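To fix ideas, we quote verbatim one protein's residues and fold tokens.
>
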Amino acid sequence: MDKKQNLRAFNLALKWLAIPVLVFFVLLAIPIVGNLLVIEGAHWLGCNTAENDIHPCQFLEWDIGELVSGYTVDAFIGGAANPLIAAYAFLAFIRSFIGAIWLLLLVSVFAARELRRKKSMAKTPS
């Protein structure tokens, strides 16, 4: 069996796990695009996006009110702080239960792929 075919399933699993989450957080980091995504998403969730205070906003049992408030205020300066707020959002995601499960799956698939790669390299005659 070819080495690349041997690892194809693992590579596909890594792509399906990593790319959607990373693309989402990269979009949040882009000025104005991230602001529009978060503010529109908050409206869709029925959250208050007034700038006068931080209002609670639940998403998957996670209060994102602080992030929504940050993106709402940041919209007035053209999204200049979006990369910092997106990094904060990513760290908050990793600390959440769903983020921890995602990271555990990602690391598990990567470790399994590396074990399979080393095993296939050991079988290949020099």
In short: Helices lie at 3-29, 33-45, 65-74, 82-95, 97-123. DSSP finds five helices and two strands in the chain.
